[in-house]
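Crash report, auto-generated. Payload:
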Amino acid sequence: MQKLGKIIALMLAVSMVCALLSGCVEKQTQKEDKEIKLRIVTMFSGTDPATETYLKALDDFMAENPNVVITDESMQALGDEFRTKIKTDFASGNEPDVTFFFTAADAKPIIESGKVVAYEEIWKDYPDVGKDITEGVKDSMKEFDGKIYALPITGFYEGLFINKELFENNGLELPADWTSFENAIKVLSEKGIVPFAGPLGQSHYMIEHFILSSGGAAGHMDVFASGVLPAWVEGLDNIKKIYDMNGFAKDAISMDIEGAQNLFKQEKAAMILEGSWFIGGLSDEMKEKITVVPMVPTAGGKMEPTSIVAGFSAGYYISTKAYEDKKDTVVELVDFLTSADMIEKMAAANGGVPAASVSVPGLSSVAKAGHEMVANAKTINMPIDSRLTPEAFNYIVKEGTPFIAAGKKTAEEVLEEVMKLHKGE
Amino acid sequence: MKHYQNWLVISLFLCPALLLIVLFLYYPFFMSFFRSFFKWDGFFTSEFIGLANYKRMFMDTTIHKALKNTMYLMFLACFIQVGIGLIIAVFTDSISKGAKFYRTVFFFPIVISSTAIGLMFKLFYVYDGGLLNTLLNFLNLESVVWLTEKSAMTAVAVPVIWQYVGFYFVILLTAIGRIPDDIYESAYLDGINGFEKTIYFTIPLIWDVIKVCFILAITGALKVFDLIYVITQGGPLRASEVLGTYMYQKTFVDYRYGYGSTIAILIVVLGLVISYLVNRHLRREEVTY
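Recovered output after restart:
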């Protein structure tokens, strides 16, 4: 009995020593792999179709790098709140280590403040970061100073989404020019189908496309370089023309984007101007029923018929502070998130155009049509709001389109005011 | 010495509240006033422009429309919101059974989030598949566009007024409940009816509280934002734009923080001036009981 007691005491002592030693070893390991915290903010959150893939990528990265803890503060970019959050973070010195944010007009003040680092600088030490992204795409990300600050994963395109079934059932061909477009509106309207799901109260995509349709690439690009361009006036007047032809829903002036999308998704409307992100929210059945084509050019307009609004307008930024304090980890994370494998997965999730040369598996017929449309486009145009000041562009949205359609203002009056706001007069 | 100690203790206890109010109310207000003289994008660029934002505000036709709509809401808040609150408070006070039930039912909308109420009313008004049009279709009637330039302000005023009736109801019911019964007794002996009792006794006796309700309704109407933003975003054709929604648009959508600050100052000044005028014009001899 006494012997048994001694054995138990000995085992206890041995186990205590082992526990102590293991504690020391654990402490030693922690010391070697010091915990590194990273803060990331993206727009892959909420109902964004790429959210799941993105979150899985963060988990995978943390599993591969157990010493890295990532705090994800992503929020969906549905309204302007996302822009405000990012700009406030940067202005208040609380910038995330990695930020997935817009380029051009939105990024300019952030770049000018020196709070993000140019990839040209990063490539001196880490030449392989973003190596899978094609050179053409990288070129399109160059900012006002000729440098690249953001690495994209997928691009977007906008176009005229058409319910093929509704067109076929009403004996209509897909619109290829302005005449067939107007004819489709007339026929569908007479049959009680909403021809065009156009939210006149939130007409961001309509403004883009109607101006492109009459002004072509050059006219679309020109933001009041030599006054108000007649093509812009014609573009906005065409919205009124469609409104007067009963081309929109009865409540189009008070309708918002979600309302227009629902009308199209419920097959009560035959056409809608939307972007590639719209595909992610459609049912599989609907994805096969619809197609996407470039907006039709106006009769006698300057638009090349394959022209579209598209591009790579967002990417991963690395903050200067993070690059100074934890450059290896932060660069490794961005390299991981912009790898060909990740680009392929994200493109499959959100239906966007991949930034790398990868083939995206399992694309729906509408997504394939979208990719073909991009491949065939002779001119690719960035949205007008990347060139106009937010106040000037919002003036067209709030004080322009609905008032012009209702006949309470003329397109000239609206654009004169927009020009003044844009030029800061 | 004792007086000095009391003063010290009172000051110590008041300090945290004072600190919070200075930090989160007065400091932002004075910063807004300061920033109203700048062309500021809210983040990186800021340029002193003197009174240009104020000049712009006086010329801005949307501000005129928003001001008119805000005044309309203020009128409805004072007369409909406080009025209905007073009527149902008088009725509830005069019943002996079920008063608690009515108190809960009328107060309930206050605890629901404005965003949820806004979303609910938005779904009522939707043209395609909205509740009101579904009801009309059920009765074999044509669908109606509920949110038009003419009707939008009334459409958003309904939930705004409905939500806060219960707030004034509770305040006024509490005030009526504090009136001692013996004041009414001699009047009852003279044979007054319920209507006369309300007009000649109840209202004069709670006049101070009614005045407070008016001031709360005025300042509340100036702050209306969430419900309108969810239902119409100030549209269609700016028909339901109020000062709160326009300030939000200029500040957080257009990134004109300087001009947004100017509109914020206008809201504060209007609140102070109108409250002062109401307080002054409704002043009556105080009745103590």
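Post-recovery validation: The first strand of chain A starts at residue 36 and ends at 41.
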